[in-house]
Design brief:
Largest sheet: 7 strands, parallel
CATH architecture: Alpha-Beta Barrel
CATH superfamily: Aldolase class I
Pfam families: Aldolase
Distance between the termini: 23 Å
Number of strands: 9
Subunit structure: Homotrimer.
Number of helices: 9
InterPro entries: Aldlse_KDPG_KHG (IPR000887), Aldolase_TIM (IPR013785)
Shape: globular
Radius of gyration: 16 Å
Strand order of the largest sheet: 3-2-1-9-8-7-6
CATH topology: TIM Barrel
Structural class: alpha/beta
GO molecular function: lyase activity
Keywords: Carbohydrate metabolism, Lyase
């Protein structure tokens, strides 16, 4: 129902073109944190294999889903690989939302304007991703809530440890933060300790 948050992690780490071995190190460290949701973007060449592998290894502790889902074929492939949620930088067709509902996975299409956001909810989306959120700023969420009431919105795009709580304070229910929250050298060298430190710093910035 619109206005009620669904069972979804408050913070999702978004991986785009991150190789499997690095994704595995990140996932392992996430199991020791309060950040328990990972999106693997389908722009990653072997995204479905990565999603499948991460679900096999960490699915009991983490929610692993697919990003940049744009077609019903994308949705079915991601669900077949074990995705528990589907995100996109654009709106979903009714077919994609129906595919998600039939499979029991969470649908998170994007919207930018009030009309786009409301349309996605009217079509049955569980959460709507406000993207790119940083172009609008936290106050935009308050502007939306004034006429539409509280909505299960996820902010993505320019969200980081420094500003994420500002968006939660303004009414966001969820946030997606890219792999830029980690030091590139930690990802490249598979430095689990460094990745754990970055996750801990992010956790400190969020009021859970």
């Amino acid at each position: 129902m619109i206005g009620q948050d669904v069972a979804f992690s408050k913070v999702t780490v978004i991986l785009r073109r991150v190789p499997l071995e690095a994704a595995r190190v990140i996932a392992l460290q996430m199991t020791k944190s309060r950040i328990r949701s990972m999106e693997v973007s389908l722009v990653t060449g072997d995204a479905l294999d990565i999603i499948r592998t991460l679900n096999d290894e960490f699915g009991d502790a983490l929610s692993i889903g697919a990003g940049t889902v744009r077609t019903a074929e994308d949705a079915r492939g991601a669900i077949g690989a074990g995705s528990s949620f589907l995100l996109s930088p654009v709106g979903f067709s009714q077919e994609i939302i129906d595919v998600a509902k039939e499979a029991g996975v969470i649908s998170v299409p994007s919207g930018f304007s009030p009309t786009e956001i409301a349309t996605m909810f009217d079509m049955g989306a569980d959460i709507v991703k406000v993207f790119p959120a940083s172009r609008l700023g936290p106050a935009y969420l308050k502007d939306l809530a004034a006429p539409l009431g509280p909505l299960p919105l996820m902010v993505v795009g320019g969200i980081n440890a420094q500003n994420v709580q500002d968006y939660f304070d303004a009414g966001a229910s969820y946030a997606g933060i890219g792999s830029g929250c980690f030091k590139p050298e930690d990802i490249a060298s598979l430095n689990g300790a460094g990745i754990a430190r970055s996750l801990a710093e992010l956790e400190k910035k969020v009021r859970w």
